[in-house]
Amino acid sequence: MEIIRAKDNKKIKAARKLLTKKKYRKNSYLIEGFHLLEEAVNSGAEILQIFVEEDKHKEVEHLDKVVLVSSEVLKSLSDTGTPQGVVAEVVRKKEYIQLDQGKFLVLENVQDPGNVGTMIRTADAAGFSAVLCLGDTADVYAPKVMRSMQGSNFHIPIWHIKDFTDLQAANISLYVTSLSKDSVSYKELSVEKNFALVMGNEGSGVTSTAVSAADKLIHIEMFGQAESLNVAVAAGILMFSL
């Protein structure tokens, strides 16, 4: 079997674009590591090609579309300092989500990739129906988000929305996190069967548009001296509680 040893190989250059630029990830994206590859295979995701280090080929010999590469070539496709031996190109799933019922996590302008990935993974663990991304939220197909999600993108639908209109039209209650004087403790909330939990930007919180659209403004009471909670930690507390 041929082994690609040149980083300027046409296939490698095309794959590297998926690693570095969001605009190239419209149809497919990269995942790294044997765990994420296993998650992709088990979920039935369409895999276009699998780049594997030549000395690890036995771990993927049961799979199709395998391309052997040198360690240097694989390193050029990795976003980490210590590549895990395999990188695969996966087709983006075309999602359409019914917004008339369910529990939704809405990420409004959440920009840190680690936070976005962690929140999606937590929504998966908490049994939420879908994650909805809004505004300048970090690209869920970026390498750092992929690592934080740990395969949850194969378990829970992720969709982008332009605004809150469709949720409001479907009579989904909007619970918007806010530290304003009008917000109530999440412990006092009478939770509807169908709702959307809106988490905002790490620095500035939710937008005034989200506040205006809210059915309830909610917060987590803090008893120490910390000014605020990390948004992913707050989302985790709220998702499992609600």
Automatic annotation (TrEMBL):
Signal peptide: none annotated. InterPro entries: Alpha/beta_knot_MTases, MRM3-like_sub_bind, Ribosomal_eL30-like_sf, rRNA_Methyltransferase, SpoU_MeTrfase, SpoU_subst-bd, tRNA_m1G_MTases_N. SMART domains: SpoU_sub_bind. GO terms for molecular function: methyltransferase activity. Residues 30-96 form the RNA 2-O ribose methyltransferase substrate binding domain. SUPFAM superfamilies: alpha/beta knot (SSF75217), L30e-like (SSF55315). Coiled coil: none annotated. The keyword Methyltransferase applies. The keyword GTP-binding does not apply. GO terms for biological process: methylation. Keywords: Methyltransferase, Transferase. Belongs to the class IV-like SAM-binding methyltransferase superfamily. RNA methyltransferase TrmH family. This is RNA methyltransferase.
